[in-house]
Design brief:
Elements (H helix, E strand, L loop, with lengths): L3 H8 L4 H12 L8 H15 L11 H13 L8 E2 H9 L4 H17 L7 H7 L2 E2 L5 E4 L2 E5 L2 E4 L7 E3 L1 H6 L1 E5 L3 E5 L2 H10 L5 E5 L6 H17 L5 E4 L4 H13 L5 E2 L4 H7 L4 E2 L2 H11 L8 H10 L1 E2 L15
Parallel strand pairs: 1-2, 8-9, 8-10, 10-11
Antiparallel strand pairs: 3-6, 3-9, 4-5, 4-7, 12-13
Helix pairs in contact: 2-3, 2-4, 4-6, 13-14
């Protein structure tokens, strides 16, 4: 055994413990990362490597983990508007597609393990840490006024909806809203359906596009602060799919922005009315429903979740074609 190192050398093979030492050195910069979940992953991984356990790492892909460290180290410096995936890749690797080809899969695996929120898509996971395909707009319908670089800007008179860019949202300060209620809507078709059929109802309607992306979250935070100071009793409603994702999105908006949010067309009676238009769900999906049923966080949704489990169906917003014309909150 004393000659083992010499055997490895003669055979041109790097000993496993040497690979582990090199991996520990590669990941070392993450020890003092500003984000807790990154430090947690480093600590768990470093401990396993110190005990001569690979911890699921590919010890032969040291360069791949060097790339991962580069990306993780860059995240705290991304501003509120997000960083284009291709621009990030060019900046770090001098190749606009290197991140997507060589880093994204491993990076997403890490995000999905440590994210406090279970998102529906890879794009939403990336957006949650500031990596975007391109900065997204916020689509709103209704009348509001804001201060933007010293000028008062109003959406009054715009028909349908308008899009606010990430840079506009970052710079704007909401100073007035003229509406009787605020409504957030998950899907684009339903958003257009609502705004067209309820034009003139004095509502501020906001399209969420699934889980609110980072630009929309910035807008919702500013809107929430305005409401808190100026009209704390403003009714806020959300309309989304009657499924796992729809419930999670509702709870995300309620928890993070508007604590008094109420659901629209997401109840048991709506499910029963439209179940003939519903989509089937598989065993894996049913398992997600059961996990939510066991969570106190979703206790107000138990009746709806039990219907999802019982009928093994979920209902998309687009299946609901009767918008309440007399809805007044």
């Amino acid at each position: 055994m004393d000659a083992l190192e010499k055997v490895y050398l003669l055979a041109g093979i790097e000993p496993k413990h040497k690979k582990m030492e090199r991996m520990r050195e590669t990941l070392q910069p993450l020890e003092f990362h500003p984000w807790e979940w990154v430090r947690q992953w480093w600590q768990e991984t470093d401990l396993k490597l110190a005990k001569r356990k690979s911890g699921g790492l590919d010890l032969d892909d040291l360069s791949g983990y060097k790339d991962l460290v580069k990306v993780l180290s860059k995240l705290p410096n991304i501003d509120d508007t997000g960083k284009s995936k291709r621009l990030l890749s060019q900046e770090l690797f001098r190749d606009t597609k290197h991140f997507e080809r060589n880093v994204q899969k491993r990076f997403l695996s890490l995000l999905k393990k440590y994210s406090p929120i279970e998102f529906e898509t890879d794009e939403e996971y990336l957006d949650s840490v500031g990596i975007v395909e391109n900065p997204k707009n916020v689509y709103v319908s209704g009348w509001l006024e804001c201060q933007l670089r010293g000028e008062t800007v109003s959406t009054k008179g715009f028909l349908g909806n308008i899009g606010l860019s990430a840079w506009t949202v970052k710079e704007m300060e909401i100073c007035s809203i003229y509406c009787k209620r605020i409504i957030t809507i998950e899907n684009l078709t339903s958003y257009h359906q609502w705004t067209q059929q309820r034009a003139g109802k004095q509502e501020l309607v906001i399209y969420t596009g699934g889980f609110p992306h980072r630009t929309l979250q910035m807008f919702l935070a500013k809107l929430a602060n305005y409401l808190k100071s100026n009209c704390p009793n403003m009714p806020v409603y959300h309309w989304g799919d009657i499924d796992v994702g729809g419930v999670r999105i509702f709870e995300f908006i309620k928890t993070n922005f508007f604590q008094k949010t109420e659901p629209i067309l997401m109840d048991a009676s709506t499910f029963m009315k439209y179940k003939d238009k519903a989509l089937p769900i598989d065993d894996g999906y049913v398992l997600k429903v059961r996990v939510m049923l066991e969570s106190q966080r979703f206790s107000s949704w138990h009746e709806v979740l039990q219907l999802l489990e019982q009928y093994r169906l979920r209902i998309e917003q687009e299946s609901i074609d009767e918008i309440p014309s007399n809805f007044s909150g």
